[in-house]
Structure formats: C-alpha cells, structure tokens
C-alpha cells in the first residue's frame, strides 16, 4: 500500500509517496516580456532578469522616441515634425505617428512599460489614428475597464 504525505510550504506543494518518489508543485505566473516570457514566483516576487532581458521592446522604444521628439519641439530644438524627421533621418509620417504615442492614457503607457498589453495590440494600433479621449483609446485596444481607475 502506497502512503502519500503532502506538505504545503507557502503556496508550493510537495508530495512524497511511500515508494520514495517526490512530486513538487509550484504555482507560477508567466508574464509576457515582448517576445520573451518572465516567471513570477508564488510570493509575488519576480525573478531577477538576466542582463539580456533588459532590452526594450519595439513599442517601448517607439514610446521613448515619441517623447524625445516631442521634447525637441517643446524646447525649441526643432520647429516642426519635418525638421525632427530630417535631423533623425526618419520619414516625417513615422515621426508623427511616434509623437502620437505621447497622448496615450497613463494605464496604456504603464501596460507598454510593464509589457502587459494584450498580445494582439501592435505599434500600428497605438500610433495610427490615435483617439485623443483616453476612454476611446482603451476601448480601441480592449482595456475599457481601466477607465474606472483613471477616468
């Protein structure tokens, strides 16, 4: 007759059978980090990323560029988006779309930085034809319930 001993430590579970076999079950949460995955431990603490996991995602880079280019306009380093585009060696339409990212709702920006945007949301979805009203932005990408927190 096999005897089973179950020990729970925190949220982890260890099962020891009388035949000496051991089964350990640890609940984890896997979070998308761009095209990579990150593991959150049962106590809620995230594993320390490896140095190569600190690379910003394309959407994060685009957001940073948009803010940098807007700052160039605000501080008088450039007078127009066309001038910014010429200085950066970029297409004016691309620069304009990235500057559009600076009008995103705070929770959408947080989702970009935390890499918790729904996987189907693309940079094009965020940067092209961006509505100015935050509720409309959230609805467009499926984050309509966040308006309660940031309304």
Approximate strand percentage: 15-25%
Summing up helix and strand content along with how strands pair, one would put the structural category as alpha+beta
Give the strand line-up of the largest sheet: 1-2-3
Shape type? elongated
Q: Give the N-terminus to C-terminus distance in angstroms.
A: 61 Å
Known CATH architecture of the largest domain:
Orthogonal Bundle
Count up the domains.
Answer: 2
SSE pattern: EEEEEHHHHHHH
pLDDT < 50 runs, ≥5 residues: 1-9, 146-151
CATH class of the largest domain equals Mainly Alpha
Question: What is the CATH topology of the largest domain?
Answer: Arc Repressor Mutant, subunit A
Query: Radius of gyration in whole Å, from Cα?
Result: 23 Å
Outline the biggest β-sheet: 3 strands, antiparallel
What's the helix count? 7
Short description:
By secondary structure, the chain is an alpha+beta fold.
Primary descriptors:
single chain; 151 residues; alpha+beta; Arc Repressor Mutant, subunit A; 2 domains; two-stranded antiparallel ribbon; 7 helices; 5 strands; elongated; disordered N terminus; disordered C terminus
Walk me through the structure.
By secondary structure, the chain is α+β, with helices and mostly antiparallel strands. The chain folds into 2 domains: 45 residues, no CATH class; 95 residues, Arc Repressor Mutant, subunit A. Helices cover 40% and strands 17% of the residues. It contains 7 helices and 5 strands. The chain has a 3-stranded antiparallel β-sheet with strand order 1-2-3, with no helix packed on it. A two-stranded antiparallel ribbon has the order 4-5. Strand 1 and strand 2 form a beta hairpin. Helix 1 packs across helix 3 and helix 2 packs across helix 3. The longest helix is centred in the middle third of the chain and has 17 residues. It is elongated, with a radius of gyration of 23 Å.
